[in-house]
Automatic annotation (TrEMBL):
GO terms for molecular function: hydrolase activity. InterPro entries: Calcineurin-like_PHP, Metallo-depent_PP-like, STPP_CPPED1. It comes from the Bacteria. This is Calcineurin-like phosphoesterase. The lineage of its organism: Bacteria, Pseudomonadati, Bdellovibrionota, Oligoflexia, Oligoflexales. Residues 60-226 form the Calcineurin-like phosphoesterase domain.
């Protein structure tokens, strides 16, 4: 039940009392997202060539820890759905890995919890023209396994996409899992499915949609809107995520979220629009590059229809620990050092160095040691030092130095407020955040035939910022506020 907003305050209070007396107020429910499990199904052990695998029992147990935790807590937490973000296995031809994945997911299946599996690039063989492109995915998680499930909506003709239907207190949801880089036939099928379930709130999962270099994030094929890489178009490498956004997401009014994995990162954005010009949240979660292939971290989404919110958090059943923004940052040190900088275009690298130096100016940080004085870091400093060492295979290279040496990247990539770079509130890369929705509008608002003034204004501001970025003197541009994490 979604309470309409046109009630007066008094009427709403009276209605709430009546509903509370008859237990009709919709309590929150949860759904869980399992990020890429490819390193888990590979079952690496220390010495197998994966530098940050430290668990002598292997990595597969993190997958079964996840699904066992979901099954054991489904009733108490009211977990109504599980979505796998793709890259179920590491090698599509390896039957042992598929058997492990099936063993882990069978725990959820036996608990009769609805779930859907997205197709990732590691789950396919060869290319799209191959006859057996997705044979093992179809064999182990194809539609033939779910036709008797009351929550299973169906699959695309290829068997590579699927959807599930759930209900909560009279409100319907559709979870649509679409194969990565979906061709037009697959997109047309998804379009028809969404059109025929217009009265349900839609949550989309597709494996490859967003990427993040910690200094700039975007959809594949989209120009970066913030950070060092602002104005640079992310290499799509054959990905159709921007076309997917333009050709499917912006054609439907009931879509509220798009989930994805593939790129090792954890961030969210809310600057996109659906077909009714209502805001959508796009979420990326992938921890495969973390210690032990992810240390078992999964995403929990708490949906509160009455409050109009979805609260996201990140938790590891194996560690019994909630992930923090400091975890994301510490693990990013390795990522930035070993990958991101070398992949930033040469013409941007000089700017990036100046931007980091500007972030560390005395008039900005005022001599404060940002990371080591962060209360979360202080609480678990030994844990984070170990995590950093594990990221480099046991010892931090001298050239990397301490966490404090990377404060510039904290400020430009993790600080939450462009005007207050030392602020530690919710940022785009936080592991815990709240998303706000006027849920009822998503199933009642008509689809716009043209872009709204809201969207046009947003795009104009982005263009204006791009012009300023190109034509202003760098020194002026770097004067706080110098970063935009919208």
């Amino acid at each position: 039940m979604i309470i309409r907003h046109h009630y007066s305050m008094i009427a709403t209070m009276l209605l709430a009392q009546v509903l509370a007396g008859t237990n009709l107020i919709a309590k929150p429910f949860r759904f869980v997202a399992l990020p890429d499990t490819q390193i888990y199904t590979e079952d690496y052990r220390p010495g197998d060539g994966r530098k940050n695998v430290t668990d002598p029992s292997g990595t597969f147990r993190y997958f079964t820890d996840q699904t066992q935790w979901v099954a054991e807590n489904a009733d108490s937490l009211d977990i109504k759905m599980v979505v796998h973000l793709g890259d179920i296995v590491n090698t599509a031809q390896n039957i042992t890995q598929w058997e492990r994945a099936k063993e882990a997911m069978d725990v959820i299946d036996r608990a009769d919890i609805p779930y859907g599996m997205a197709l990732g690039n590691h789950d396919v063989e060869g290319n799209k023209d191959s006859v057996d492109y997705s044979r093992n995915y179809r064999n182990y998680f194809g539609p033939q396994l779910y036709n008797d499930r009351h929550w299973y909506g169906g699959s695309s003709p290829s068997g590579e996409s699927n959807y599930q239907l759930i209900e909560h207190e009279g409100t319907g949801f559709i979870f649509l899992n679409i194969a990565l880089n979906s061709d037009q036939d697959e997109t047309n099928w998804a379009d028809q499915v969404l059109s025929s379930h217009r009265d349900r709130l839609a949550i989309i999962t597709t494996h490859k949609h967003l990427q993040d270099f910690r200094v700039g994030f975007a959809r594949y094929g989209e120009k970066v809107k913030s950070g060092i890489l602002r104005g640079i178009t992310m290499d799509n490498r054959g990905s159709r995520s921007q076309e997917f956004y333009d050709g499917l997401i912006q054609r439907h009014a009931n879509i509220i979220m798009v989930l994805s994995g593939h790129f090792d990162a954890d961030f969210h954005r809310n600057d996109g629009f659906n077909g009714a010009d209502l805001p959508i949240y796009e979420v990326l979660a992938d921890f495969q590059g973390s210690r032990n292939g992810g240390d078992g971290y999964l995403k929990i989404f708490e949906v509160d229809l009455e409050a109009g919110t979805i609260k996201a958090s990140t938790y590891s059943p194996s560690l019994d620990r909630e992930r923090t923004i400091i975890d994301n940052f510490v693990e990013s040190i390795d990522f930035i050092y070993s990958q991101a900088i070398s992949r930033i275009p040469e013409n941007v690298q000089g700017i990036s160095e100046k931007l980091v130096n500007a972030a560390l100016r005395d008039d900005v940080v005022k001599g404060v040691n940002v990371i080591e004085n962060h209360p979360v870091y202080q609480k678990e400093s030994a844990y984070y030092e170990t995590l950093l060492a594990d990221s480099f295979g046991g010892a931090v290279p001298q050239s990397v130095g301490s966490v404090a040496d990377w404060e510039g990247f904290w400020i430009i990539g993790y600080a939450s407020d462009r005007d207050k770079p030392l602020s530690f509130g919710t940022s785009a890369r936080s592991s815990r955040y709240t998303m706000h929705f006027d849920f009822e509008r998503y199933i009642t608002e008509p689809i716009r035939s043209k872009k709204s003034h809201q969207r046009l204004w947003s795009e104009f501001l982005d263009d204006l910022e791009g012009i300023k970025r190109r034509h202003q003197d760098l020194k002026i541009f770097l004067t706080p506020p110098f970063i935009d994490l919208r």
